[in-house]
User: Fold this.
Amino acid sequence: MKVTYNWLKEFVEIKIPAQELADKLTMAGLEVVSLEEKAGDFILEIEITSNRPDWLSVLGVAREVAAITKVGLRAKNPQPKIKTAKGNLRIEIEDKKDCSLYTARIIRGVKVGPSPEWLRKRLELVGCRSVNNIVDITNYALFELGEPLHAFDLDKLNPEKIVVRRARAGEKITTLDQEVRDLHSNVLVIADKAKAVAIAGVMGGQETEVTLGTRNILLEAAVFNPVVVRRCRQALGLQSEASYRFERGVDVGMVEQASLRAAQLIREYCFTQEVFLNSSGLTKHKERRVKLDMARVAGVLGATIASAETKQLLSRLGFTVKQKAKNILDVGVPSFRQDVRLDVDLIEEIARIFGYAHIPVSLPAIKPQITANVRRGLVSIVKEALVGLGLSEVITYSLIDKATLGSLGLECGVQPIEILNPLSQEQEALRPTLIPGLSRAVSLNLNQKQEYVAIFEIANIFLGENKPREELTLGIALSGTKSFLLEQGLVKEEAGFLNLKGIVETIFARLGISGYTLNNQGRSAGIHIQNEKVGLMLSLTPQSLNKLNIKNKNVFVLELSLDKVLSFTRRDKKFIPLPKYPGIARDISLILKEGLSVQEILFLLKEKGQPLLSEVRITDYYQGRQIPAGYRGLTLSCFYSSNERTLTEKEIQPTHELLCSELILQFGVKLR
Amino acid sequence: MLDIKAVSAQIDVDILEANSPEALEQFRLKYLGRKGLIAELTNAIPGLPKEERARFGQEANSLKDKLRSLVVEKQKTFAGSSGPAAPTVGDLGLPGISQSRGHLHPLTQVTDEICAIFNRMGFSIVEGPEIESEYNNFTGLNIPLEHPSREAFDTFYLKDYTKMLLRSHTSPVQVRQMKNKKPPLAIVVPGRVYRPDAVDAAHSFMFHQIEGFLVDKGIKFSDLKGILEIFAKTIFGDDIQMRFRPHFFPFTEPSAEVDISCIICKGKGCSVCGRKGWLEILGSGMIHPHVFKQVGIDATRYAGFAFGLGIERIAMLKYGINDIRLFFENDLRFLRQF
Assistant:
């Protein structure tokens, strides 16, 4: 909202320059977001918080200036001497909850024309376009006093009565902005005997607009229900200076004064002949009183403020203060301060004007709750392990376009949870998997000419079941070729499933999880811990890669339910004594038919090698010139040891020979 | 017949010249090698007259001992360099060889840093769900259903679940915690939040917040100032200025926005702070009695403060990032800088 320095000065004496005033207002909670010098005046643009509709006027800001600078408000507006006769217009309010007060002032014999220079200029400074003298005067009163007014061309109304009612089904109105609006029962309208002539508190109708030919007017000043105006504004997508104020709540005590102020100006500048007033609804405001204990003020703020200072400060803000008992004030809340209901509301007022800067700084004694956030700690361990493995963390959007799941072949049979009010298709659903976001990040980076992309994200996925459920999930994506420049030259390593396996092994080792299996399903593999499926790894299909605009590269992804994985975490590590006696290592080199599982070979060896075989590792695997097509070479390193004695070559020979012959027998391998 | 005395004198000369491991090895071979002088002497013994053999043998042996100790002594002077020579430094302009580490996302790093600061002061770290009830997100926090204050919290609602939404701030966790635990409470809550904002350099429909609150007997506004001053100075440095400005939040009263002096221009006014010299970093205030009422805490016995801040905002200020979209684009050239 904009106000000007000179306009404020009509209400309060200001002795400080505009910049200093702006700073002081900011520090009192009226944040001045810009200050501009223009046409011999200063325009202050102020961000007004939604709890303070009373600040949406020059008068409201002036009241604040008076309190901050410790001066009184000017006794402005000597009540205009307008002889007002009671008119014979009938006002009907269908529901007092929609409109608590409606006043209509009939002003006859006006001459509509351009506004005087000063009025046009002042409205322009606060960002309001000049229309004609009548409309400008209603706007002037709105900006000055915060009460929206509306002028109708009386001769275009059915003069019998004014009705404030909900719109009838199928009713239409053309508003001042020349739009035809379809109305319904959520919309409150002002109507004459025959039809709706304005949308209450939002905008007038074009038919009854004040034009150059207008001779007689009806000047409306009223109070409409904030929620009703808000719904109207939302339903019609129509906002105005009036609706903005009504939604936040206008001061019922200002209606009469604003209407009079406008009438006075109209008489002065539009050659009025006669004025009549009709009104309906509540006119008396019941004053709210709040008890304020000065000990509470000190207790809440941690600052001691003298009772005299408090009283003075509240009075300047328009409150009436009575000393009820020692340290207890009885504070009367003015009609324009509907936001003040509790003592803390008053305490904030005191603190604001006293100055937050003057409240001391202290430190509380914090009594911590001794609860370690175990899950967060484990997640942190996983993140650190992944970073150590060379993966970088990404954060991708939780909202996705449903179609991406299909295009990446990731439909999981369940419909993702949908958003009721997305801004775009890209935000229409909550992701049931992290893979689309990761894939897009891989695509972006490969297209930025990255040779190798290794990324992970730890975030929730969302599953729509009876109740929506969130599952903390780890997603990993690898693609491209990693190169190491070593002293012997450049070594290249293409990302693949075994890299994913290595990552899984590292994470599980870090979390103390053993006994997991990987179930090969061709293009994908399931990851299981103790027969529970905790995740999977897969490679994206050529169609998916095409959709992602990824060329000549494969993308390997992994998804693990961290909620499940973390439940298997073992943190009770036990020391295993180091071997007392040296062991003997023997290698087996063999040729194996493609398609046979190395895992099964290892199982067999471990079983048959008991009790002397303590460890068997794969130390090499290869395909190439020395190996016939359809086969691969494998080197196994068997380590024999005992806890009781040092083994001799002779002792292990039978076991080692047994293993070799079992390999030939069970798997048909050829030894090399 | 060899003159042992002459040989001994020659040895003393030779050992002085054996000044490198290679020369010493030559020396050793010359005297102690398989075809060396000592071997020659020993081989000559059987050809000597019987009465000379013992004396000659003794002299040869003592010569051998002398040689051995000379070699050992000399070796010590080459301390540790008896093996191959130490590698030379070579061209250090070549790239270093190491494992390439990945990078934690800057938002994770900033979140961890902020959480650690509050953790050290005794706050626990708690998380909450991203899908929330309308009650926890709004009503429980004294945000009436149809009120202009809701405007600041435009919200994504779920389609098939009534009154369920994506939390528009981390404050619902305040409601959850205060409902389920008894004061004293000292908690910080990091997390993702959502608001239907059109995406541009300054706005994102998904972003991150940290919420913090302290509830106990006798908590005052001055305590809020103290805690937040420690926080801001730890993050942005001891030399910053701070100011608390009155503001409005439905769930706190009194409420304050907190500014720090611009870390770019030190308060002089620049494009980052909009020539104001101040940067807004967080919102805070004393927990509203209506919120306490909703969660069943006796507001006459307990008081508390709460604050909330945007992690992206802090990260952008801290690192000088000018576009919020960079956080979610995940360009490795961006991520590797942190």
